[in-house]
Design goal:
The chain is about 40% helix and about 20% strand. It is of the alpha/beta class. The chain folds into two domains: about 210 residues, NAD(P)-binding Rossmann-like Domain (Rossmann fold), CATH 3.40.50; about 170 residues, Dihydrodipicolinate Reductase, domain 2, CATH 3.30.360.10. The strands form two sheets. A nine-stranded mixed sheet has the order 14-13-12-11-7-10-9-8-15. Strands 3-2-1-4-5-6 form a six-stranded parallel sheet, with helices on both faces. The termini are far apart.
Length: about 425
């Protein structure tokens, strides 16, 4: 039987191989530029996916976001079922199953509820048609690769990795999925939200002229943390507190701020080529992440994008985007302004054709199921891979105090995971980074 160690080694070999990436990933980057053409034509956003044969979904990662994603999938249309659950912790599986029973009168049988680090394999092999991936970001590249190998359509939450090795693995999996006709939708909700899409179309039409700069802000309060318990191993304590550890979440510039990074990359139509950033840790109670980041990203046409994100209570909050052009600017969500700050265009929420009918979290799954049932595959891996790598580039610059380039990240062997997954001590760097050292 193949050992976990051997499978991990094979995964690293595939993910980190520059030769394999160049064979698949370079073509993917070129295709991505074509997909990002300025006249990008979005399909209509349906309120419900079309009827079709039964789609059986397996959920991997049964925490609050995973449970939410399962409910979003069930809201997407008819003849949809959750038939398998998997998580490293039994109590998470039980919580999710309880919520499905309470809210949708669905109960996954015990024999289709899997626990442990190999639960993802058991879910994939349980007879499901599609898979929802909602584990902490660290695990997503390996799980996506396994899903694609098994020929499964996938919904994968954002971000899709925490390090360059993981991002390249996802790029490769995305190329393989595209060749197989599989649909992969990611948790970038703004790309599935009517007001953002219509505002994007205005920018494509040239309503703000040539883009000259961008700013974004994800300044909010503290999220949450879990204090370790005596009965928990270090591995269990870290995973239960995953949002505070860089090797599990990628730090909040990647895990949360990726929404803004993705929005700006989407509107600009490309990824930055370098970053200079800084950050600090002021009040975080646990883990090894920073509390704040400020990064100057530079695109290849000399456009600067300043990204700011912070997770500290009691401070000024702001979650927004601003893209400025030669003839105006936009908040990306619903308004185009002239340079004198007068409104040039605004999304009409009162128009029946433009009404926001459903939650964007549901819309993602409507779009995913629609693509599967109509035989018109969608594949969003390249875009979210680039946005995730953008966050990683900014994080590395802030941690080191150095300018970091896209080329360096695409060729980096930085890999944050432990060599083995087991409930014991965790062999990862736990120190808080110090810039300049």
């Amino acid at each position: 039987m193949e050992t976990k160690k051997n499978k991990r080694r094979e995964f690293l070999k595939n993910a980190g191989s520059i030769g394999l990436f160049c064979a698949l990933g370079t073509a993917g980057l070129l295709q991505c530029e074509n997909r990002k053409e300025r006249d990008y034509n979005y399909p209509p956003l349906l309120k419900k996916a079309p009827d079709g044969s039964l789609l059986k979904a397996g959920l991997i990662g049964c925490g609050y976001r995973g449970t939410g994603a399962a409910l979003n999938f069930l809201n997407a249309g008819s003849n949809l079922q959750i038939t398998a659950l998997g998580d490293v912790f039994k109590d998470r599986v039980e919580m999710c199953n309880s919520q499905l029973k309470e809210r949708k009168d669905i109960e996954v049988p015990e024999e289709k509820c899997f626990v442990g680090f190999d639960a993802f394999e058991k879910v994939i092999d349980s007879g499901v048609d599609v898979v929802i991936l909602a584990t902490p970001p660290n695990f997503r590249p390996e799980h996506l690769a396994a899903c694609v190998k098994a020929g499964k359509h996938v919904f994968i939450e954002k971000p899709i990795a925490v390090d360059p090795v993981g991002v390249r693995s996802v790029m490769i999996s995305g190329e393989r999925a595209e060749a197989m006709g599989l649909s992969i939708v990611t948790g970038t909700i703004k790309r599935h939200q009517k007001d953002y899409i219509e505002t994007f179309r205005q920018v494509v039409k040239g309503e703000i002229g040539d883009i000259v700069s961008a700013n974004s802000y994800y300044n909010v309060g503290k999220l949450w943390h879990k204090n370790p318990r005596a009965e928990w191993s270090e591995m269990e304590a870290m995973i239960r507190d995953w949002v505070n550890w860089c090797w599990l979440s990628g730090d909040h510039i990647v895990e949360q701020n990726v929404h803004n990074l993705d929005t700006v990359n989407w509107f600009v139509g490309k990824h930055p080529v370098k970053a200079v950033g800084f950050g600090s840790r002021q009040r975080r109670l646990t883990g090894n992440q920073y509390d704040m980041f400020g990064v100057d990203f530079l695109y290849d046409n000399d456009v600067h994008y300043h990204s700011m994100c912070r997770q500290i209570n009691g401070c000024q909050n702001n979650v927004s985007d601003l893209i400025r052009g030669s003839e105006g600017y936009t908040n990306c969500q619903n308004t185009i302004y002239r340079n004198d700050s007068s409104v040039k265009w605004i999304f009409d929420y009162g128009n029946e054709d433009q009404e926001l009918d459903i939650s964007p979290f549901d819309q993602e799954h409507v779009d995913w199921v629609t693509a599967i049932r109509t035989g018109k595959p969608v594949n969003e891996t390249q875009a979210i891979a680039e946005s995730t790598m953008t966050g990683i580039m900014g994080r590395v610059s802030a941690y080191t105090g150095k300018e970091v380039t896209w080329e360096e990240m695409m060729n980096s062997d930085l890999y944050l995971s432990p060599k083995h997954y087991h409930f014991g001590q965790v062999d990862v760097d736990k120190a808080v980074p110090i810039p300049g050292l």
